[in-house]
Amino acid sequence: MRIDKYLSNSGIGTRKEVKQYIKNGLILLNDKVVLKSTQQVDENKDKIKFKNQEIIYKKYIYLMMNKPQGYISATKDYNDTVLDLLDEKFQNKDIFPVGRLDKDTEGLLILTNDGKLAHELLSPKKKVDKKYYAKVDNILSEEDIDKFKDGIYLEKEQYLTMPAKLEIISNYECYVYIKEGKYHQVKRMLKSCGKEVLYLKRISMGNINLDETLDLGQYRELTEKEIEILKNN
User: Fold this and answer.
1) Sequence ranges of the chain with CATH classification 3.30.70.1560
2) Which residue from 66, 67, 114, 133 lies 20 to 30 Å from 75 (Cα-Cα)?
3) CATH fourth-level superfamily of 130-205
4) What is the average pLDDT across 166-181?
5) CA of 120: how far to CAs of 14, 27, 233, in Å?
6) Coil, helix or strand for 200?
7) Where is the RNA-binding S4 domain (predicted)?
8) Distance between CA atoms of residues 113 and 91, nearest Å
């Protein structure tokens, strides 16, 4: 692997910034100053330092975003995607959103380049709960709770959803817990109960909760503890 890729993948900076660091003699490879950005390194054996601090290579990137409305949960689209919100240092890292939130839905979105973990989180067999907060236009009832418990039939797919949980907060507010991610699933489940969703926000995924200090459109890297929690969901 080229050393500029190694360093940019480790979050030191963009390729352009890394090349400048090398030019300024700030990068050491096995205690020797690196002279070329094309220098090959072995991420498992070589010791790389930046400003005399050893750099630990990050093969995978894990981000938590508070997704705003107006962005598509995709890597490419004619409209704005969630990747457009990322800084340059996270571009071209094969990062993708884990699952999708509708364009007009806000809240927790995990982004990563770890395909195996994404599959584990999205597989219905793993039964990873996704929790949503919803505002609706009609009064919620105990009957709605019972319908969710039994699963709701989705006409388009001719599919009965897995049993879900509806927790009523007020007449027009609720939490929804699902283990799947069918197209517009939460909205369609509530619509089958005679409710139109006016606002929808994902609160958690498994045991990872949205960091409420993140403003809409902001994101941060997951902590080591959070990554471990995700892997053990």
Assistant:
1) 130-205
2) 133
3) Alpha-L RNA-binding motif (3.30.70.1560)
4) 96
5) 30, 37, 9
6) strand
7) 1-61
8) 11
- Class (C level, CATH) for 3-55: alpha beta
**β-pair partners for 186:** none
Residue 11 has pLDDT above 80, yes or no: no
What secondary structure, in 3-state letters, does 183-199 show? Answer: CCHHHHHHHCCCCCEEE
Of the candidate CATH numbers 3.40.50.2300, 3.40.710.10, 3.30.70.580, 3.40.367.20, the domain formed by 62-124+210-232 belongs to 3.30.70.580
User: Quick one: which of 193, 199, 197 has its CA closest to 216?
Assistant: 199
Q: What CA–CA distance (Å, rounded) separates 130 from 178? A: 5
Instruction: For 189-213, write each residue's pLDDT tens digit.
Output: 999 999 999 999 999 998 999 999 9
The residues of the chain that CATH labels 3.30.70.580 are: 62-124+210-232
Facing residues of 65 across strands? 109, 219
Report how far residue 23's alpha carbon sits from residue 87's, in angstroms, rounded to the nearest whole number. 23
Length of the chain: 233
With residues binned 3-state (H G I as helix, E B as strand, rest as coil), the percentages for the chain, rounded to 5, are 25, 30, 45
Residue 91 has pLDDT above 80, yes or no: no
Long-range contacts of 84-87 (CB under 8 A, 24+ apart): 85/217, 85/219, 86/111, 86/219
- For residue 103 the two structure tokens come to 């364009």
Mean predicted confidence (pLDDT) in 108-119: 92
User: What are the catalytic residues?
Assistant: 102
